[in-house]
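Lab meeting prep.
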Amino acid sequence: MNVQSVLKMYTRDKWSLIYIPSIILFSSFFVNIIVSFLIPSDEPFYTGGISSVMVYMFVFGILSIAHLFPFAIGLSVRRIDFFTGNVIMGLISSTTLAVLLYIFSVIENSTNGWGNRLHFFHFPYVNDGTIWEQIVMYILLITMLYFTGSLIASFFLRYGGKGMLISALVIVLLGTIATLLVSYYDAWIDIFNWFVGKTAVGIAYWFIPFILIYLIASYFFLKRSTI
């Protein structure tokens, strides 16, 4: 079996690939639009409901490895073929979702927030760039989340629950030390100013090296997993 066979495994599970993210996104949207009409106000109504589908892409990255990798190995799929298929599917899913989010943001902005000043898809700063910049920003963000999930699942397959626990403790420890150092040197304002001086897509470009590192690490873990 080859990469094409791996892609077929993904596309057969239409619930995980299409139905569930659609249900999550649009159920959150309809709830928020109903709430916006129930709260009379002349001010714009901002909501973070779009984050629900972002979280799902992170979870999907975990489940795609955890569920399909053992099954694929049982069918004698080469690890490099499974990894390649997962990368391709992640890029296709991220690009498709990014384009859809951009289209909905344009519709929302042109209809004055669906006629009631609702900001579910369109936000200042995030959607201030050109068409290309907005779509690229979404692609990089969603891809980052998807491959972060894939990295976690790959790490678990390689090192198991004990490895996950130790790594979580190390991450918490390093995060605590970093926070203390930033506070000690009063660097929070400098960090805030750095972000303020960047565009949304400019910040998203910084995801690229992390994505590449995650991909390399994921392949290494899958290659050496005992499954």
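Slide two material, second protein:
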Amino acid sequence: MELAAKHFKASATKALADAQLQKALGNVEKGFIGKRKKAADALPEFEALRDNARDIKNHVLAHLDLYLEEYEAKVTASGGHVHWAETAEDARRIVLEICQNANAKTVTKGKSMITEEIALNDHLSANGIEPVETDLGEYIIQLRGEHPSHIIAPAVHLNKEQVEDDFRRVHTHLKADRDLSEPVSLLSEAREVLRKRYFAADVGITGANFLIAETGTSVIVTNEGNGDLTQTLGKVHVVVASIEKIVPTLEDTAQILRVLARSATGQDMSVYTTFSTGPKREEDPDGPGEYHVVLLDNGRSSMLGTEYQDMLRCIRCGACMNHCPVYHAVGGHAYGSVYPGPMGAVLTPSLNGIDETGQLPNASTFCGRCESVCPMRIPLPKMMRHWREREFERNLTPSTARYGLKFWAFFAKRPKLYRLAASFGMPLLSMFGGTSRRFKSLPLAGGWTRYRDLPAPEGRTFLQAWAQREALKQEPLNQGAGQ
């Protein structure tokens, strides 16, 4: 997809004025936060599992080369093929060649953020192969020509009335009196259409939540069963995954699965957790004749050993954006990148460079909710601060912000001058605040006061208030000493 992260501010302003979007975004806060809390509270060892999950991924990242080699060997031993892709272009080329070798005209796809990252659908379509998304949310946005607005709920920005309109526009077989007013009827209609596409497709493409080095297994986690049909009905199954999805053992995978669904959707486990190891064997009743794994780097190895390495622990649960007040306000499309929310504000600059994405790390209140709910304990605010520092060092921040910070730093580095300026400035600002104690407009603060009032200072600085408090605490002692 075309990267539009540099236009985040303009996109966010547009999103705030979109009444339909604002109505749909209300479902994010209502639908995810309470469910996650309930699921986590019901599991006494949840916090310990988070620690274990973090430690497992840290161990993998410290020995990633060894586990990748082990995984390749196990896939090959099971009859599968591993393809190494350094860039998105490499991955697109490899997948296209596999599809062309299978003489595929249509491919079915399970939900996969990594194929969104490499813009696989557009590449296949441009080369005469029709990709059909089988996840309901992905199918809906494919009909609309859009990209996911959430990594686990791609169509969360839509209301069911919009989905019904799209189905009636595209599904020409629909009769006018067919009731599509409820989610169940919409699901039934999509299932009826997609069922035929599964049997027509020669190749099935999925992502992977985990790749198990111990067994050469790929794991997908879904709630619809579409992933199972995608990878078993076609002649060829292609897994596209990034290199950090490696997990050492089946037991390690089971531990991380216990925090994944609870963090993502508030479920104990997702409805379908599917393990695939190699192509169909003689004794198997079904399955693909060929099994291919495309392992994508696309900038991830360059994150190893840096202050952004912790981001590679991400298991794409979406908990950070489910709890992010900025995401709640503007939705996913405003970020202008494949990965929205706090995790996108860290990962997107890592993959695409801070020059194009500098506004994203600034799309945060630094409230810390993202880190507090992350099942892998990723310090997202800290890494966003690192990106802000990089942006400032390279003079990418607006000149007003840079000069404003330099002006403040001049005083902050000189405590006596800072206190003197504050002791004059706070009472002066307090006088202009009026009886409402708020500023409706203020020079050099229009970015704030254009949308909300700015509280006026009380008249004293913090140090002055603290000194007065300490003096009052000492007053009874002084009175006693004089008796």
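Talking points for slide two:
The chain has 22 helices and twelve strands.
The chain has three domains: 1-36+329-397, 43-302, 415-481.
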